[in-house]
Amino acid sequence: MSGSSSGLLLLFLGYLIVSSIYATSDSIFNDFVQCLSNHSSPSLQASSIVYAQTNSSFTTVLQSYIRNQRFNTSSTPKPLIIVTPTDESQVSAAVICSRDIGIQLRIRSGGHDYDGLSYVSDVPFFILDMFNLRSINVNINDETAWVQAGATLGELYYRIWEKSGVHGFPAGICPTVGVGGHLSGGGYGNMLRKYGLSVDHIVDAQIVNVNGTILDRNSMGEDLFWAIRGGGGASFGVILSYKVKLVRVPEIVTVFEVGKTLAENAMDIVYQWQHITDKIDNDLFMRLLVQPIILKSKKTVRITFIAMFLGDAARLISVLNKDFPELGLKKEECKEMSWIESVLYWANFDNGTSVDVLLNRTPDSLKFLKRKSDYVQKPISKNDLEGLWNKLIELGKPGMVFNSYGGRMSEIPASETAFPHRAGNIFKIQYSVGWEEEGDEADKKYLNLMRELYSYMTPFVSQSPRGAFLNYRDVDIGINHNGKDSYQKGKVYGDKYFLNNFERLVKVKTAVDPQNFFRYEQSIPPIPL
Length: 529
Prior knowledge:
The protein is α+β, with helices and mostly antiparallel strands. Helices cover 33% and strands 20% of the residues. The protein has helices spanning 3-38, 58-64, 88-101, 153-163, 179-184, 192-195, 217-220, 222-227, 266-276, 313-323, 339-346, 382-395, 408-411, 440-456, 486-498, 502-512, and strands spanning 50-52, 81-83, 104-108, 125-129, 136-139, 144-148, 167-168, 202-208, 214-215, 238-245, 247-248, 253-261, 284-295, 298-309, 334-337, 368-376, 399-404, 427-435.
């Protein structure tokens, strides 16, 4: 056969393959739209909420809630279909139809899954995108709010502020994070030492199960209600909404941000911080940003102390003078403000920014990023801290965030909710690296830096298992292809995320989704049949 004939044959075969793929995609799309129409109200134009890859708006819809550029490349696997329901019955229909057609369903509320598991898969999949379901109903009389899964934390804070200046909610500091994933995975924020996590204030919920049935707390039962408070929602169904109990906040709160380099005695201050941060007044939360920097042509480490205090500056100074004088905080370094202003402060908005900015659902910028987590249960010695500073300087790019524990977190039993990391932890570590360069080489370089730092920290963090925080998603600690050994694979990461709560989560999963329809690379597996 001549070279030109071979080339034509290959071209023809390629055309057939591509044509087959598109024909299959078209067939799946048509089957799904027909099924959706059959299970929805007659007035629904099913095609109006379903986007195939051939739709001119597909890429825009897909990219609107991608928050990590690592998963926004031409080689990133794309969903066959994106479904954007506008009411709860359409969520039910989408679950039924995805299940009946036999295609995996990824559920995305805000897109902040650090490793992209809410919108990426290596097998054919649909995305159920919840961004249209974002209503928030605040009832100040009974101090509760119903909030749909597609709402953001910023929108929730804003709607609370509209009704009251002395109420808030204990959740994260990033206003564009989606409520569905944040609350189902725990909900960590700067009031946790006073009030615990978001999951500690959930009083009801709505979820669509594998049969497409909408359940509330009463009809789902206490086991499933327990599981979706810290165990992640996407292993069990589709979270539609949560009813949360609001908390009281003072009219005046105080924040501060103080940076210390190694030359400014950062070592001794951090060492002492470890001994008091989980025991100090519960109104005080202190976060430490630990970053390698270059200062006057010299490599060093800067520790930035960022604090939230539920009270005025005078009382804060009194607390710190008594329990943490090493920091040397001055009154002029404190800023008094309302709670909603502190939300803006922690989100890094400039002083005087309108509260309306919390209604913006899009972050200012996107980066390639990787995150990991750890828990520290014994103070790290000065010698070991010095070793850590040297390691950070050597690696050059990754940083760390130390987040205070203790207070209310130490009072709530580990089995109270599915989130288990309670008493015994001094602080939680978030490892962080971000970069702007595109391509596999850059990804490999920065991921390896993170893994090297994580490995270096092994002797200083929790052991057997080495704990991890579900909402700081990290596929490095184990993944599951949901085959015959799915329980064994799931136990590897499940024990780290959920400690002794993992086995109960498996039992709940087995009861509500025995065929494992709701699955992904780090989902809760059912007990093997």
